[in-house]
Amino acid sequence: MKKLTLLSLIAVFAGAFAFTACNSPEKKVDNAREKVEQEKQDVRDAQNDYAKEIDQYKRDQAQKLADNEKNIAEYRVKIKNDNITVRERREKKVAELEVENKNLRTKLDAYNDNDPNNWQRFKSEFNQSMDHLGNSFKELFHDDDKPRN
């Protein structure tokens, strides 16, 4: 009787093991497929977010560059009333600012790299250039207020 119970118990465990072993690889494959699909979706979402970030940044910077163009036009009108020496110096500075602004617009429009490392480097350098340009605009009329030695 003890042998029969032991054999029955072994048979039940063997059957359960065989049943579990047969289902387990299929379930593992299904789980792996689901995981791969989820990871693919995560990659697509990240790519979309990345593209949106670039697009938004480009729109924001393009607006700043357009504002600079408007300021340049206003400066050209404003300096017409300056005396000849000051006007020539300011016209030269405004022309330099205009060239720098156009160069930045060209650089912004031409950017199309999909590497996030390159994007971060581009954005950092572009922000520095925009800051420099903004400071140059601020200094345009302030340099004549300083006393000369």
Keywords:
0% strand; 86% helix; mainly alpha; 149 residues; rod-shaped
Please give a structural write-up.
- The protein is mainly alpha-helical and 149 residues long.
- It has helices at 2-78, 84-110, 116-139.
- It has one domain (7-145).
- The protein has three helices and no strands.
- It is rod-shaped and about 105 Å long.
- It starts with a helix and ends in a 10-residue tail after the last helix.
Order of helices and strands: HHH
Helices and strands: which structural class?
mainly alpha
Percent of residues in helices comes to over 70%
N-C termini distance: 117 Å
**Which regions contain 5 or more consecutive residues with pLDDT less than 50?**
145-149
Number of helices: 3
Quick synopsis:
The chain is an all-alpha fold. It has helices spanning 2-78, 84-110, 116-139.
Task: Please render the helix and strand layout as text.
Elements: H1 2-78, H2 84-110, H3 116-139
Helix pairs in contact: 1-2, 2-3
